[in-house]
Design a protein that fits this description.
- There is one protein chain.
- The protein is an alpha/beta fold.
- Helix content is 42%, strand content 15%.
- The protein folds into two domains: 2-47, no CATH class; 59-231, Zn-dependent exopeptidases (Aminopeptidase).
- It has helices spanning 2-32, 43-47, 86-103, 151-169, 180-183, 186-190, 209-214, 216-231, and strands spanning 59-64, 74-76, 82-85, 107-111, 125-132, 141-143, 197-204.
- The strands form two sheets. Strands 4-1-5-7-6 form a five-stranded mixed sheet. The chain has a two-stranded antiparallel sheet with strand order 2-3.
- The chain is elongated.
- The model is unreliable at 243-248 (pLDDT under 50).
- Bound molecules: zinc ion.
- Zinc ion (ZN) is lined by residues 65-66, 72, 86, 130.
């Protein structure tokens, strides 16, 4: 029995030794470039195992309107004390929307109004979040760059906002007040030419205050759903709304 075991071990070592010898011969032949046409057997193809490549995450940027710069629009009481600012409303909703998008598997950066990262920014979508003045009016509005180099893509982003933001918030479009401040928004000029970008006025600090403060999750859901519609279009692709590109 013991002799048989020793014999098996000897045979095993003989096989290993032979395999090693063949390997050394092949390596020497490879180095000396003799034998086969080695180009047909590139080392990398033989050595690198095909690993599943994870799908790249969608890169999203949100500008928290006025952050790091000023307060934007304000609501004040009779004594002139500031009660609510556009900057704080935008920051809160940007934060909530970012969480929703991250939980949907996206990479999200929240940028300040004049964040240096806006320069030549290359992402799958940029949406700048603002709110309108503290007057007794209601409605949201979205716009893209008047001089866009990718107007079809930008229009599709605004179309997604026009579909999903009102659905989540119950707000209606306040399109007749879209201004040059929106269509010639500073960040539009700065982002990379292939970055789809839009500016969204989330509602009025006055008439929509309840929604923007106490129901901020609804507004954030509207922002996140709009962006998801754009980067991961539902089937069937949403019909463009006729007023979405009206940026006059
Ligand atoms: Zn603003």
């Amino acid at each position: 029995m013991r002799r048989a075991a020793i014999y098996r071990i000897q045979r095993l070592f003989a096989i290993i030794g032979f395999a090693a010898f063949v390997g050394i011969v092949l390596i020497v032949a490879r180095i000396a470039n003799v034998g086969f046409s080695w180009e047909q057997f590139p080392i990398t193809q033989n050595v690198v195992l095909p690993l599943p490549v994870p799908a790249p995450k969608e890169q999203i940027a949100l500008i928290s309107g006025h952050a790091g710069f000023d307060s934007g629009a304000i609501c004040a009481d009779e004594e002139g004390n500031t009660m609510l600012t556009e900057a704080e409303v935008s920051a809160d909703i940007a934060d909530r929307a970012a969480k929703l998008l991250r939980s949907a598997g996206m990479d999200v950066a929240i940028l300040e109004e004049y964040d240096p990262r806006i320069n030549n920014l290359q992402v799958d979508a940029l949406v700048s979040l603002h709110a309108d003045s503290c007057i007794d009016a209601s409605g949201y509005k979205a716009a893209y760059y008047l001089y866009s180099t990718i107007p079809a893509e930008d229009a599709r982003l605004v179309d997604c906002i026009d579909l999903y933001y009102p659905a989540a918030t119950g707000l209606t479009q306040h399109a007749n007040t879209i201004t040059h401040n929106m269509t010639e928004y500073h960040a539009f000029r700065k982002v990379g030419p292939t970055t789809p970008a839009a500016i969204l006025e989330l509602g009025f600090l006055g008439g929509d205050q309840e929604l923007l403060t106490k129901q901020a999750d609804r507004a954030a859901r509207g922002v996140a759903d709009s962006i998801r519609c754009f980067v991961d279009p539902p089937d069937p692709t949403p019909e463009p709304s006729p007023t979405a590109t009206d940026a006059s």
